[in-house]
Write a structure and sequence with these properties.
Oligomer: single chain
Protein name: DNA-3-methyladenine glycosylase I
InterPro entries: Adenine_glyco, DNA-3mA_glycosylase, DNA_glycosylase
Radius of gyration: 17 Å
Mean pLDDT: 94
Number of strands: 2
CATH superfamily: Hypothetical protein, domain 2
Organism: Microbacterium stercoris
Structural class: mainly alpha
Low-confidence stretches: none
Distance between the termini: 17 Å
Binding site for Zn(2+): 189
Order of helices and strands: EEHHHHHHHHH
Keywords: Metal-binding, Zinc
Strand order of the largest sheet: 1-2
Largest sheet: 2 strands, antiparallel
Length: 203
């Protein structure tokens, strides 16, 4: 199968999608991180929070602010964030290094509490990670163009519904599909990308 026409071949001879072809930060993120499996609770909680904060903004904005987010949210340790109180909310609203959106900040704290509550529940011994990964689709995707990549899927709709039932917020189907892409549950690397198939999930 020929490479995707939407790939950009870099000066290193490697094919990448347009969004990862120019900005050095996005290029490094694409080359080393995006789409690689994340199966631990803290890692998934961080990504879930950041995807929520990204809603309505560019991922590049969130990625540049990620060090500040990690500092502000105690390394995204769910136990520590779950204990945040009103003073922490005001501290976060005054932190210019992050996205100062009260609804999203409150959602992140609430999602930490929901993450803690998931632990040890029947059928979800692994908590958040096991729950999220249980929505992995049966078949891989093989997009050749950007138009072939959906913005949601039946699995992301179902994951969104289940997380909302568990008390999570800012977890709509489109946001959850982006999460599934980012943590390796679905592979939307374009055909011909040097990253396609590198997650090991679909090999």
């Amino acid at each position: 199968m020929s490479p995707s026409p939407d790939l950009v071949v870099g000066d290193d001879g490697l094919g990448r999608p347009l969004w990862a072809s120019k900005d050095p930060l996005l290029r490094a993120y694409y080359d080393t991180e995006w789409g690689m499996p994340i199966r631990d609770e803290q890692g998934l909680f961080e990504r879930l929070c950041l995807e929520g904060f990204q809603s309505g903004l560019s991922w590049a904005t969130i990625l540049r602010k990620r060090p500040a987010f990690r500092a502000a949210f105690a390394g995204f340790d769910p136990d520590l964030v779950a204990a945040f109180d009103d003073s922490d909310v005001e501290r976060l609203m005054a932190d210019a290094g992050i996205v100062r959106n009260r609804a999203k900040i409150l959602a992140a704290i609430g999602n930490a509490r929901a993450t803690v509550a998931l632990r040890g529940t029947v059928g979800e011994g692994g908590g958040l990670a096991e729950l999220v990964w249980s929505f992995r689709p049966a078949q891989p995707l093989a997009p050749r163009t950007h138009a072939d990549i959906p913005t949601s899927s039946p699995e992301s709709v179902a994951l969104s519904k289940e997380l909302k039932r568990r008390g999570f917020r800012f977890v709509g189907p489109t946001t959850m599909f982006a999460l599934m892409e980012a943590v390796g549950i679905v592979d939307t690397h374009l055909v011909g990308s040097h990253r396609r198939g590198t997650s090991g999930v679909w090999s």
